[in-house]
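## retry 2 of 3
previous attempt timed out at serialization; input unchanged, resubmitting
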Amino acid sequence: MTELTKRDVLRGGTAMAAFSTFFGACAPSRISQASLSSNEFMDGVRIAELISNGEITALEATEQAISRAEAVNSALNAIAHEGFDDARERATSSPEGAMGGVPTFIKDLADWQGAPTLFGSRAFKGNQAREDGPLSAVWRETLGVVSLGKSTTPEMGLISSTEPLVTGPTRNPWNTDHIPGGSSGGAAALTAARVVPFAHASDGGGSIRIPAACCGLFGLKPSNRIAPIGRTNQEGSPVEISVDLAVSNTVRDSAAIFAATARSEDAREPVTGPTSRRLRIGYAPEPLSAGAELHLDTRRELDLTADLCRALGHEVKDVVMPLDGDTFSDRFLLYWAAGAAQFAQEASQFAGKPPGPDILEPWTLLLAQNFLARSGELDDAVAYLVRSQAAYHNMFDDLGVDVILTPTVSSPAPLIGTQNPAAEDMDAVMANVLGFAAFTSPMNVSGAASMSVPMGMSSDGLPIGSMFSGRKGDDRMLLGLAYELEDAKPWIDRLPQVVAT
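## retry succeeded, writing output
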């Protein structure tokens, strides 16, 4: 059997050369706030512009963000580690870059020098990063951000809710009884509450797009091998699923981060506004897996998104994705479980204890046990996923479309506890996770560009995301479409119940 580990899956590329700042190219006056002292929202591009022009200092921006974090985190529980003093020290050095001096958070799966990296796990208490991981190095040196600390994540990012035992559940700022999604749940909660304009997020099975949908944010999952990757080098694995970027309040923040950090020369030209290209959009609202049911509010809002695309002049036609959802889900889950098994070994080695419930959560142990019971099937599962990559990309020509429109998730954010990784009824948790996150993983396996756009709201006031997916390399096309949707149906003035401004 070919050995396949989470370390293989999460490995990222080599260090890239620093990319010059490009404030002018990325900062058309789409948001007109003029003063940091105002309580009005400013996105990261605008804050970076003010710092670059000398109108404010990075330290002032950092102090304001710290005050916002202190005001709301007791309600959200979204910070795994407060690095406020380190942030102040970094801000005084006037960091330069495309987001020079802008405050943000780094997800607790990536090493930021001097900060703990818990991986959302009790097993890694005391684990301190001696140096930046590859993603953090780019965010520090190329973007020039100021990290306020680490945002919460479920244990090793293995589930679509952020309720780790090590920090407790993170709550959705739109309704704190509900989850913010996962695994970038802390990043999404802090960004949606306007503590920071954007935050680092990663996506191995939907973990940028799912929390973006739950929290009313924009989230681009970039194509594989374009954006820098967080933990280690995954390149060379048979199926590269994990990528890093951000969740953001505005499209242009994600677009600026994408362009500034891209490893591909073609991707470094900033996308600064709506596309003029009229697209052929395939509308595929129905889940492909048995047991996944689409919430009525989600279907209603997705229909409205399709109607808006038609009104904007895009061709929208009903399609069915040619994918055996049940088979795909089964093979992907086995691949995912292989990562959980490897993480269990790493946690055991670090903690000096056997991989049991005193250091690992029941969800992680369940996945690891499932892998051990089926490890002989892994080669076949990997071969199936490799074949599905070509099938996914061929689908666009076969259907005659440029983009596929689906829900991001099957329902608005569930209640906290529905996906509790330590629940007594793990079968119910598994069923809920598979039904909820039924749409996102094909794009991870195929390496394709995909984005969640906050186009709607549920009847009880929870955000609903619409997911647009293209081929690998279609990132700039999707960003242009996102700008157009943002202009046609702005979301920036929608505020959650817990908000720092």
